[in-house]
Design goal:
alpha/beta; Rossmann fold; 46% helix
Length: 142
């Protein structure tokens, strides 16, 4: 059996957007980079999947049925094993960007966005998260 190849090989990614075209496009690009993907179209499902499956990365739309992206962030960030979150939105407001990053979004991308930029930022953020976890694991215990 061959190992997946690509910049996101062996990474689990949850793609959350109520627009199926966006979910499918992002999924296609991330799978081509070796990611294991899962998709859902509403906030309630996103929270459930995050708590059950612990993805490495969540691509999260802000405007979702059932539970907004902000409410999803509130439930999935702030824990030791929280995923990296890239929030994607068509909203141009600076207050929303500030609010999202204040709640723990690692990056805020405005739609339409470049798939190349999405992959580049995902790889960069996951490497940073790995480095933080490695440093935390190497600290002496009290």
């Amino acid at each position: 059996m061959t190992q997946p190849q690509g910049q996101l090989a062996n990474r689990s990614v949850l793609i959350v957007d109520d627009e199926s075209d966006i979910r499918e496009s992002v999924e296609t690009v991330l799978k081509a980079e070796g990611a294991r993907t899962r998709t859902c179209g509403d906030g309630n499902s996103a929270v459930r999947v995050c708590l059950e499956e612990k993805p490495d990365l969540v691509i999260l739309d802000m405007m979702l049925p059932g539970r907004s992206g902000f409410l999803v962030l509130e439930k999935i960030k702030g824990y030791e094993d929280s995923p990296v979150v890239i929030m994607i939105t068509a909203n141009e407001g600076k207050r929303h960007r500030s609010f999202a990053t204040g709640m723990g979004a690692d990056l805020y991308l405005q739609k339409p966005f470049s798939m190349d930029v999405l992959v580049e930022k995902a790889v960069e953020l996951l490497k940073q998260a790995d480095e933080v976890k490695a440093r935390a694991g190497s600290r002496p215990k009290d």
